[in-house]
Design a protein that fits this description.
The complex is a heterodimer. Chain A is 36% helix and 24% strand. Chain A has nine helices and ten strands. In chain A, the strands form two sheets. A six-stranded mixed β-sheet of chain A has the order 6-7-8-3-9-10, with helices on both faces. A four-stranded antiparallel β-sheet of chain A has the order 2-1-4-5, with helices on one face. Chain A is globular and about 55 Å long. The chains are: A alpha/beta, B mainly alpha.
């Protein structure tokens, strides 16, 4: 699904992504972990196109997307959620989602129809709200949602783009244990046709969700493998958990 | 879905109805104000579409009014086209210029966007001020109005012309009403609220901005064409940055991002101007004080404040659905 080869990005003399190569299989649940400053979000920004790499290539479903703008990558099937909530705060939940659906379907170009009167947009927005557990908050302004609900809306917006590959940037960041569990259920319930790559700090979430884990440190891939291998790896314990081997 | 603004239609009906009534009963002097208001409403709405909906704060939109006025002058006066075709051509040229300049200016944002739009419009102004064909900054008179006498309409009758301008203003308001309620208008709002997010949804943001710019430029060119029809005189002043500034003031004071706001702002601007002008030559000082007061008391503009107040009232009386 995703093939990353020799990806490199430097800000001045600081190399934040240093020759990263990895692949993600179609339908996989893959996690990206590493200590703060390891270059995880930078890697996401390179994948989603918000940053341009200095070198390397990104292929999505066999297609080279390295030179594509962020919006074209979304059209190619790659969507992301953000570490910090990034919503349309002055729109209701349903308006947030219907706007996203309109962009996905190309109805956003229609200037002769009514947005509010579009049953199609409304129905799909409703279904999305339902799927992330926001059905009862559909008419609330995004800014009035609780933090956990805003996180759910964040995921729903990414899902509205109908991606093949979804990048989730710390979906449970800042959540209460209760909210984290419900987010975990939400992610676990996503269809298998969707490939997931997530950054996550909560190790319980990582070891439960991910089938394979990639550990980044100083912008390099340190080790890659199934949770059991990562859990047992001395080098990971040393740099990530701060324990002596 | 979509904030239903039940106040907009009655208020617009009241404003345009009042203008229409004024056009019917006014004397010659008041009639000129009615016509100016109707024409400026078209211009102010086009600016609000960019500033209030697409979040593109332009400080050079009068340049497109200039394109409209000079295009009508050129095609009707020099090329000998029928005035109707000249006006249609002016609007089309406004749209084309909007696409070309929109393509250029949407590459930058924020303060740079403001400065580039200002610079481009002043380039047009500078050209117009030095064009021998259009008599430089003396301006060129003797323009003809659209001839509709075969339909029994004499636009050279100032009352008839005023009513025609009001009808155009109402029609343009209708078009923008339609646009801002469409999925396209909703996408512009989304760009204004959070450009980064809508791009992450796969939206080619710049294309939408250019489209908005082209639409607003066509409308401004129409306002310029009307202005020329009104004065029968083409002068670089029509494209001057002061006009761009006035349009921004009208939009912000009236309430950006609402279609009613610019109409209220235009009424206030012209009426206050004419009333104060009859007492003192320093009308700008009083206008300035009035606008500073309004912006301090109602940062969201007059109509924006009105909406906020009625929504709060509806919540208090339980008439509306709570937001949270």
């Amino acid at each position: 699904m995703l093939e990353v080869g020799g990806l490199r990005k430097a800000f001045g003399s600081l190399v934040v992504t240093d020759g990263v190569s990895f692949t993600v299989e179609r339908g996989a649940r893959e996690a990206l972990i590493g200590p703060n400053g390891a270059g995880k979000t930078t890697l996401f920004n390179l994948l989603s196109g918000e940053l341009k790499p200095d070198a390397g290539s990104i292929r999505l479903a066999g297609r080279d997307i390295t030179g594509l703008s962020p919006d074209r990558r979304v059209k190619a099937g790659l969507a992301r959620s953000f570490q910090r909530n990034n919503l349309f705060l002055d729109m209701t939940v349903i308006e947030n989602l219907a706007t996203a659906v309109a962009v996905r379907t190309g109805e956003s170009r229609a200037f002769w129809r009514s947005f509010a009167g579009s049953k199609g947009l409304k129905a799909r927005a409703d279904a999305l709200a339902e799927s992330v557990g926001l059905a009862d908050r559909r008419d609330a302004l995004a800014r009035h949602l609780s933090y956990g609900s805003q996180r759910q809306l964040e995921i729903a917006l990414a899902l509205a783009a109908e991606p093949q590959l979804l990048l989730l940037d710390e979906p449970t960041a800042g959540m209460s244990p209760e909210e984290t569990r419900s987010m975990q259920r939400l992610i676990a319930g996503l269809p298998r046709t969707l490939t997931l790559l997530l950054i996550e700090h909560d190790m319980d979430v990582v070891f439960e969700m991910a089938e394979r884990i990639t550990v980044l440190d100083y912008g390099r891939v340190l080790i890659q493998g199934p949770p059991a291998t990562i859990r047992g790896s001395a080098i990971v314990k040393q740099i990530y958990f701060g324990e002596a081997g | 879905m979509g904030s239903r603004d039940r106040l907009a239609l009655p208020v617009l009906a009241l404003l345009f109805g009042g203008l229409f009534a004024a056009a019917l009963v006014s004397g010659a002097y008041s009639l000129t104000i009615v016509t100016e208001i109707a024409i400026f409403v078209v211009f102010a709405l086009s600016v609000d579409f960019l500033v209030g909906y697409a979040g593109l704060v332009t400080f050079g939109h009068a340049g497109f009014m200039g394109v409209g006025a000079y295009a009508v002058a050129y095609f009707s006066h020099f090329a000998g086209w029928p005035v109707g075709w000249a006006i249609a051509m002016a609007v089309a040229l406004g749209a084309v210029a909007g696409i070309a300049i929109g393509w250029l200016v949407t590459r930058v944002s924020g303060v740079f966007f403001i400065m580039v739009t200002l610079a481009v419009s002043m380039m047009f102004w500078a050209w117009a001020s030095k064009s021998p064909k259009f008599h430089r900054d003396d301006g060129l008179g003797g323009m003809k109005r659209l001839d509709l006498r075969q339909f029994g309409i004499d636009l050279n009758d100032e009352r008839v012309f005023a009513i025609a301008c009001i009808l155009v203003a109402v029609a343009v308001t209708g078009v923008f009403w339609w646009l801002v309620r469409s999925p396209f208008g909703q996408t512009l709002r989304a760009i204004k609220q959070n450009e980064n997010r809508i791009r992450a949804q796969g939206c080619a943001v710049q294309r939408y901005k250019i489209a908005a710019f082209a639409i607003a430029s066509a409308a401004a060119a129409l306002a310029g064409a009307l202005h020329l029809q009104n004065t029968k005189f083409v002068h670089p002043e029509v494209a001057h940055w002061i006009k761009s500034g006035e349009s921004l003031i009208v939009v912000i004071v009236g309430g950006a991002g609402t279609l009613v706001g610019p109409v209220i702002g235009t009424f206030l601007f012209f009426l206050f101007h004419r009333i104060v002008e009859s007492f003192t030559a320093n009308w700008q000082i009083w206008m300035g004080l009035l606008f500073i007061t309004i912006v301090l008391l109602a940062p969201e503009g007059i109509y924006g404040r009105l909406l906020a107040l009625t929504r709060r009232r509806m919540r208090e009386t339980g008439g509306g659905k709570p937001d949270a």
